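Usage

Read records sequentially. Each one opens with the input sequence:
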Amino acid sequence: MPLEPGDKAPDFTLLDQDGDPFTLSKSLEQRKVWHLIYFYPKADTPGCTTQACGLRDARGDLGDTVVLGISPDKPAKQKKFDDKYSLGFPLLSDEDHAVAEAYGVWVEKSMYGKKYFGIVRSSFLVDEKGKI
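and closes with the structure output:
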């Protein structure tokens, strides 16, 4: 079931591109600012690169908002993606797609008649109180 405005954002702890744990509730508590969480299918692919670089370039317009990218990629692949494009924000590894499932963005997809599960590109703005 998709999350709706006003819903509590599901908390999570995931490893970032440097292998360090990032916990949403801890970040919200410490920073008391909005967080933009975006889910993307795969690091360093054309659509995901355009999306990530667009967010990198717009960060000046986002004020203190924390930008977080989440995909099923391993931290090492996230690190290469970050280094290649100088993204400068946390890229979080959701290898078992548990967080994507909690946010309702792990869905059945179809390509060339083949069905599979993957991330539907999605973004969530979470306020300082943890609400969508």
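Summary fields computed downstream for this record:
- The chain has four helices and eight strands.
- The first strand starts at residue 13 and ends at 15.
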